[in-house]
């Protein structure tokens, strides 16, 4: 748990980068159609500081159960929602996605489960199976899981070179790949946040007043 506590509120800084806004656009595009039902109960696994928890409520969820293993993350999430108009729709629960726990009043209570940067924390296939077990025990028949995680690639070296190229580096986020996982299913990686150089992405002549 200390690993997640160390990340803490630094998580919010990543969401403010151009990279974070691109993630937001894609996530909203793919999950919002499933929030259009009159009654949609959502489970947010690995809710972090509540960035998407609040947005899930805003985008149409009836209720949101937000779960995270970190007390620091949950404290940040509760602070974010404290004065929000959606506060009454959200319940926060400290829980570990690696343990098959029912978070609703009964098994399979949720129409939709979100897992933004949740599955990528599995260190091996066994932990990944545990995460999907948690999803299955909480998801209704016919329900939908929407996750955000690293894109699978066969040629990791060229992917890293491209991802950390000049243009991507200016988005404010860099991935540093470290040790190969013992199960040979991928690598440990560290996301490094840099203040983006937005001025270098826009030509001064292209700027126009908005009022």
Short account of what is shown:
The chain has 211 residues and is an alpha/beta fold. The protein has helices at 2-7, 10-15, 18-31, 51-58, 71-81, 125-138, 156-163, 166-169; strands at 41-45, 63-68, 90-94, 110-116, 139-148, 173-180, 187-193.
* Oligomeric form: single chain
Q: Please, how many helices? A: 8
Termini separation comes to: 48 Å
Whole-number count of domains: 2
Shape: globular
H and E order: HHHEHEHEEHEHHEE
Structural class: alpha/beta
Question: Which value, in Å, is the CA radius of gyration?
Answer: 18 Å
Largest sheet: 5 strands, parallel
Helix content: 25-40%
- The top-level CATH class of the largest domain is Alpha Beta
- By CATH, the architecture of the largest domain is named 3-Layer(aba) Sandwich
CATH topology of the largest domain: Rossmann fold
Neighbour order of strands in the largest sheet: 3-2-1-4-5
Keywords:
7 strands; disordered C terminus; 5-stranded parallel sheet; 2 domains; Rossmann fold; 8 helices; alpha/beta; single chain
Q: What report would you give on this structure?
A:
The protein has helices at 2-7, 10-15, 18-31, 51-58, 71-81, 125-138, 156-163, 166-169; strands spanning 41-45, 63-68, 90-94, 110-116, 139-148, 173-180, 187-193. It starts with a helix and ends in an 18-residue tail after the last strand. 24% of the residues are buried. Strand 4 (110-116), helix 6 and strand 5 (139-148) form a beta-alpha-beta unit. It is 34% helix and 23% strand. The protein is built from eight helices and seven strands; from the N terminus they run H-H-H-E-H-E-H-E-E-H-E-H-H-E-E. The protein folds into two domains: 2-148, Rossmann fold; 156-201, no CATH class. By secondary structure, the protein is α/β, with parallel strands linked by helices. GO terms for molecular function: methyltransferase activity. It holds the Pfam family Methyltransf_25.
């Amino acid at each position: 748990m200390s690993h997640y506590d160390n990340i803490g509120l630094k998580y919010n800084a990543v969401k403010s980068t151009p990279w974070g806004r691109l993630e937001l656009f894609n996530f909203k595009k793919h999950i919002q159609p499933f929030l259009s039902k009159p009654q949609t109960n959502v489970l947010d696994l690995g809710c972090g500081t509540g960035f998407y928890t609040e947005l899930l409520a805003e985008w149409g969820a009836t209720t949101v159960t937000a779960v995270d293993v970190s007390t620091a993350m949950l404290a940040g999430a509760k602070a974010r929602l404290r004065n929000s108009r959606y506060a009454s729709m959200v319940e926060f629960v400290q829980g570990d996605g690696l343990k098959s726990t029912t978070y609703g009043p009964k098994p399979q209570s949720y129409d939709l489960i979100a897992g933004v940067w949740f599955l990528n924390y599995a260190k091996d296939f066994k932990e990944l199976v545990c995460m999907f077990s948690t999803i299955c025990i909480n998801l209704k028949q016919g329900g939908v899981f929407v996750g955000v995680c690293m894109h699978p690639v066969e040629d990791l070296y060229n992917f890293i070179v491209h991802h950390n190229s000049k243009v991507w580096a200016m988005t404010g986020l860099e991935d540093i790949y470290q040790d190969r996982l013992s199960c040979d299913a991928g690598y440990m990686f560290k996301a490094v946040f840099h203040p983006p150089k937005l001025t270098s992405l826009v030509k001064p002549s292209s700027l126009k007043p908005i009022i």
